[in-house]
From TrEMBL:
Gene3D superfamilies: von Willebrand factor, type A domain. Residues 47-253 form the DUF58 domain. It holds the Pfam family DUF58. InterPro entries: DUF58, vWFA_dom_sf. It comes from Chitinophaga agrisoli. This is DUF58 domain-containing protein.
Length: 297
């Protein structure tokens, strides 16, 4: 069976338990993952030992599994756990839907899968939700009960209001470690450059940062057949949909905006990935593993 259906967000909507969603996604991802793509570099091999829950999945030896039908870990002398913080945009624009799937649904599934993968690798995980001008936070920990709290909070997010205005980001995200991995899941919709302010502050702290920019296919192609007017979910402003010329202008402006956004973030050493909501989660999971490895260096 192909692993890709297990990574399809539309398939995942049938699963109501978010912890089960996370396990389903990671099981499908690991089933299709080539071992060479998650192998660490520059580490001295020490010994084999039996797999234990919470071990770093990057060091599973698949050849040993094929020979013995048991999981073994290749141990090294380097500490492989880090702190991973998930930053979730839960402003009202995340209620935007494409083919029955909302941006918040996609963000929920992606964050849950990444949190589960982080936990399985022994990482401490934290959750920060930017919603209706406020900021909810769960500091990073690595115990199973904490992971359950993260799943619970993700399940119960109801997008509302606008993105949170600037708070004391420097004090909040300084942390105890030299570097952390920050995963920001957002649609990049902002009224007063509040998202830009957040990313500027985080970049100044020299953390590894991944921005997953969620957009629906209907947004990318301006395909809103059957509608004559669009309404801004955060301001209430309306825009008429009138002709093909408008669609052409929209497409040109959108491509210029996406290119400028990507360049601006890359200049700050922030990894940027445009995520189309009709695509499986595997690309985002691979991006996470690659960036996580950089955080260990």
């Amino acid at each position: 069976m192909s692993s890709r259906p297990l990574l399809d967000p539309k398939v995942l909507t049938a699963i109501k338990d978010l912890s089960l969603v996370a396990r389903t996604v990671i099981d499908g991802f690991m089933a299709g993952l080539n071992r060479s793509q998650v192998k660490g570099t520059g580490l001295e091999f020490s010994q084999y030992r039996s797999y234990q829950p919470g071990d770093d999945l990057r060091w599973l030896d698949w050849k040993m599994y094929a020979r013995s039908d048991r999981y073994y870990i290749r141990e090294s002398e380097m500490e492989t756990s880090i702190s991973v913080r998930f930053l979730i945009d839960a402003s009202n624009s995340m209620n935007h839907q494409d083919s029955g799937l909302s941006k918040m649904d996609y963000a929920r599934y992606l964050a849950a899968a990444l949190a589960y993968l982080s936990f399985m690798q022994g990482d401490a995980t934290g959750l920060y939700v930017f919603q209706d001008g406020q900021l909810f936070s769960l500091p990073s920990r690595k115990d199973p009960q904490h992971l359950s709290r993260i799943f619970y909070q993700l399940e119960n997010i109801q997008p509302a209001g606008q993105f949170t205005n600037e708070v004391h980001y420097k004090q909040l995200f300084t942390g105890e470690r030299r570097k952390e991995l920050l995963i920001f899941i957002t649609d990049m919709y902002q009224q007063r450059q509040e998202i830009t302010t957040l990313l500027n502050s985080l970049a100044a702290l020299q953390h590894e940062i991944i921005v997953f920019h969620l957009m629906g296919r209907n947004e990318l192609e301006m395909n809103f057949s059957g509608y004559t007017t669009l309404q801004d979910l955060e301001t209430g402003e309306t825009t008429p949909l009138n002709n093909a010329q408008m669609k052409k202008a929209y497409t040109a402006k959108l491509q210029a905006y996406l290119a400028a956004t990507r360049m601006q973030l890359l200049e700050q050493n922030i990894f940027y990935r445009l995520v189309e909501m009709d695509q499986p989660l595997d690309k985002a999971l691979r991006d996470f593993l690659n960036q996580r490895q950089k955080s260990l260096i």
